[in-house]
Amino acid sequence: MDTTLEALIGLLEDVKEDVDYEGCTALIDDHVLDSFDILSIISTLNDAYGISIPAAEIVPENFNSAASLLAMVERLLDED
Amino acid sequence: MELFSAQFLLFLCAAWTAYLVLGRVKPGLQWTALLAASLVFYVVAGGWRSLAFVVSASAVTWVAALALEKLEARSKEARAAVSDRAGKKAVRARFTARKRLVLAAALIICLGVLGYLKYWETVLSYLMPSATGLGLVLPLGISFFTFQVTGYVIDVYNGKEAAEPNLAKHLLFTAYFPQLIQGPINKHRTLAPQLTAPHSPDAHGMRRGAVRLALGIFKKFAIAIMLQKTVGEIFGTVDEAIPGSLVVVGLLAYNAQLYGDFSGGIDMVEGISELFGIEMDPNFRQPYFAVSLSDFWQRWHISLGAWMRDYVFYPLALIKPLQELGKRAGRRFGRHIGRTLGACIANVAVFLLVGLWHGAQAHYLVWGLYNGVIVALADLFAPLFDRMAGALSIDRASAPWRIVSIARTFIIVTVGRCFDCMDRVGDALICLRNTCTNLMPVPWDEALIALGFEKGLIPGRVLLCIAVIFVIDLLYERGIDVRERFLEFPPLTRFAVYLVLGFFVASSLNHVSEVGGGFMYANF
Fold it and tell me: A5-79 maps to which CATH number?
C-alpha cells in the first residue's frame, strides 16, 4: 500500500467524509473524531497496510492529524 | 477518621503546616510530608491491615514497572545488535513475551487480591448458601488505588509512562490521602509530577480550594445526609403494594442523595488537595445536564470511565473477532452497523464490568446491563433517530430540544437507579411495575405517613439546597467559573454566604449521629 499522505487521506475520507484532514491538527482534541471513527480508522489502516494497531497507540498524539497517523503507520511498518 | 470531624481538621492543619514548613526549609523533600501524612491518615482511618494492602500494591507495581522498563531497554539493545529485519522481529517477540508475563503477574496479584476481598464472600454465598461468612473486610479505598496502580503498570508496559525509580515516591502516588476514600482514579502522568514538585503557598489557589471544600461539605451534609434516612425508609422494605408515587419520590431523592454524596465527597477531597497546590483528575462535569445516557457517563465518575475506556473498551473493541464481526455486519447491514457493532458489544461488556465493580450482587449486574444495552442501542439506531428527527422537523440544536433531551436522559438514568439502590432485582421490578400500573397519585407525604413514616421526611430546606446546587451546575454548564466569580465578591458578602451554607450544614448535624458521615462510594 502506498504510504504517502495523499493515500492515507483517501483512506480516512472513506471512513468519514467532510473532514479537513489536510489542515486539521486536532482531530481528537476538537472532538472531530469519536470512538467509532477511531475504531473504523484502525480497522481500515490495519487492512490497508497489513499492520496491527494496538489499543496502546490510541492516544491523541497519534490521531490528531493525518500526518501523525502516517507517522504511526510508518513506525509500526518499521517494527513489523 | 471522618472527613468532617475535629480529628480530621487537626490532622489537616498539622499536615498542611508540615508541608509548607518543609517546602520552605527543604523544598526537595517537601513531598515526604505528604507521604507521612498519607500513611498516618491511612492507619488512623483504615487501620494497619489496610496500610499493609496499600503498601503491598505499591511495592508490587513498583517492581513490575521497573522490570518492564528494564526488559524494554534490554530489548532495544538486543535489537540494535541484530542487523536483519527477521532477527529484530524475533528479539522483539521474545522480550514482548517476557514483558507480558511481568504485566500479567502484577495484574493477577493486584486484581486477584481485590477480587478475593470484594467478591469471594458473595460467590461463596451463591455456591454454599448455608456456609457462614468469612468476615472479609475491604481495606479502605482498595478499588480506587488498585485501579490507579494497575493503570500505571499498563501504561509503563505500553511505553506511555516512565517507571518511577523511587519506591517512596511511588507509594505516595498510590496512597496520596485525599484520593483514598473514593477516588478519583488519578493518572500517573497528571498526579505524580505534582506530588513531588515543590509548592509554595498560593493564596488564590488555596482560596479556590477552600471554596470547593465548602461546596462539597454543603452537598454532602445539607443534601445527601438529609436524604439518607428517607431513601433508606422508602426502599428498605419494598412490598407489593408500594405506591408508584412513593417510588418516584424515593428515586428522585436517591438521585439527589447519590449526587450530593459522591460529587460532594469528591469536591471535598479535590478542595483539600488544592490546599496543597495539587489538582487531581476531575470526576464530575454537571452530569444531570447530559443530553444522552452516553453523555451522562462521560460526566459522572469520569476517572473510572477513562480507566475503562483506556484499559478495557479499546483493547476489547480491537480484538480480531469483534473487528471481523463488524466487517461482516457492515457487508450485510450497511456501513453504520459495521462501524458501531463491535464497539457496542465492547460497551455492554464495559458496563457489565462497571456493574461488577460496584459489587457481585445480581442487581449491580442488571444495572450494568441496563446501561450498556441502552447506550449500545442508541448508537446502533442513531441513523433511524436522525431520520425521525428530520421527518418531524426537529431542530436538535435548539434549546427546547436540548431541554427535552436532558429530561429524557434524567428519566433513563433514574430508572436505572432502581437497580442500584435496591439490593434485590425483584424489589426493583416491583417498584418499576407499580410506577407504571399503580401510581396512586396521592401527595407523597400522605403516602409516607400511611406507611408509618414521620411527616416531612424531605424538608423544604433540602429542596432549597438542591435548587442551589442546580443553579451552580447550570452556571458551570454555561461556562461560568463559579468559584472565580464567588472570590470576586466583597469579603462581607462571601462571609454571609459561608454563614448561610454553615447554617444548612449545622442543621444536618443531628442527622449525622443517626445515619453516620461515611461516603457511599467508599464501600465500592
Answer: 1.10.1200.10
